[in-house]
Amino acid sequence: MGARACGVVALALGCGLAALAVPRLGAGIAMVPAGPVVEALRAGERVAEPHLATAAATELRTLAWVPDAQAYADLSLIYWEQARRAGLATEEGRRYVEASEQAVERVIALNPSHPIAWTRRAQISLIKSGIDERLARELLMALRTAPYDRVVLAPRVGIALYAWPRLDEATRALVLDQIRLAAKLDAETLAAAARRTFAVGVVRAALADDPGRLAKFEAFYARLD
User: Fold this and answer.
1) Where are the alpha helices (DSSP H) in 111-210?
2) Which helix (H) or strand (E) holds 97?
3) Number of H-type helices and E-type strands within the chain
4) How much is the pLDDT for 153?
5) Per-residue pLDDT tens digits for 10-37
6) Number of other residues whose CB lies within 10 A of the CB of residue 90
7) Residue pLDDT, tens place only, 85-112
């Protein structure tokens, strides 16, 4: 191949790479305002409603440039927070739940091992159809894909305690590990979940071999009476 031909090929490849890079660059620029909002939500902080709406619009602009699993995951989180605030049983809340579900389905399609997607999928299934085999499967996927992700630890344990009677032995073993981790990281939230789901016996059994964590859990649980 001559020098000129080599130059043409290099130019073509360079243009192709540049064309691929432009949407990513545009997406990165569009995401700037949404970043702090998403981080605040992940940290459990309250975000003003106008900021949620702006962040959702920003994520949608991002996704107009290029499909991205993380951007869809962030959008699902924003919609879920808006659903929670509106009330999950209200008409407005249900619309946000549907929007969150559509976003998380795109996450799973793009990245089936995304660490947060399956927990969100299980949350939505619990709201829409209660405890069934689908929820159990989604919970198992959540446990397998992100066993140590602190962002989804509390909601995942809460779902697992609700669903405990319908879980098989393999899934229960994974849930017990999650309970032990939750007792280490946030025993207060675990105590509230145990009371809310009437599953204090499950938590006590999980912590039976760890007197220190069990005592800490019991202290928080006693304060709920």
Assistant:
1) 117-129, 133-145, 153-163, 169-185, 187-196, 200-206
2) helix 91-110
3) 12, 0
4) 92
5) 322 233 322 223 333 344 434 446 788 8
6) 11
7) 999 889 999 999 999 999 999 999 999 9
Sole residue written with tokens 């619309």? 95
Residue 130 φ/ψ region, left for φ over 0, alpha for ψ in the -120 to 50 degree band, beta for the rest: left
d(CA 198, CA 192): 10
What are the tokens at 24? Answer: 């990513």
User: How many angstroms separate the CA atoms of 52 and 75, rounded?
Assistant: 10
Whose tokens are 């630890």? That residue is 153
Copy the structure tokens of residue 32.
């700037």
Q: Which residues 6+ apart lie within 8 Å of 162 measured at CB?
A: 126, 131, 197, 199
Report the SS3 class of residue 93. helix
**How far is the C-alpha of 194 from the C-alpha of 188, rounded, in Å?**
10
Q: What are 114's two structure tokens?
A: 């995304």
Q: Residue length, the chain?
A: 225
Bigger pLDDT: 27 or 187?
Answer: 187
Q: Is residue 17 exposed (0-12), middle (13-18) or buried (19+ Cβ within 10 Å)?
A: exposed
Rg (CA), the chain: 22
Coil, strand or helix at 162 = helix
Contact 59, 34 (CB under 8 A): yes
